Amino acid sequence: MYVILLKFTEKADQAEKFVQSHIAWVKQGFDDDVFLLAGSILPDTGGAIIAQGASLPEIEKRVEGDPFVSEGIVNAEVIEIEPGMADKRLAFLLEEE
């Protein structure tokens, strides 16, 4: 499982030009059953995504395809997590892939 942090750079003021393609990229991650959750980092410093079902190289390649990343709007950090415990509502996250 991965947490992907997308933190705005000094080019954040250019985000509006790429926001629709970024949203399409996020939606594709959900359509591909890789993204589990996506949202904003508050107060408005970027975004975060929880992903599962892909290898680290696949996640890194996917992140490179984000228009916000390729245009330098955000810096991306991929953090790999090995889940050990979860609330019963999230028990599916502990299942082997």
In short:
This protein is of the alpha+beta class. The protein contains 3 helices and 4 strands, in the order βαββααβ. The N and C termini lie close together (10 Å).
Please describe the structure with a list of short key phrases separated by commas or semicolons.
single chain, alpha+beta, 97 residues, 31% helix, 4-stranded antiparallel beta sheet
Explain what you see.
The chain has about 100 residues and is α+β, with helices and mostly antiparallel strands. Helix content is about 30%, strand content about 30%. The chain has helices at about 15-30, 55-65, 65-70, and strands at about 1-10, 35-40, 45-50, 75-80. The chain has a 4-stranded antiparallel beta sheet with strand order 2-3-1-4. A hairpin with a 4-residue loop joins strand 2 (about 35-40) and strand 3. The longest helix has 17 residues, at about 15-30. The protein is elongated.
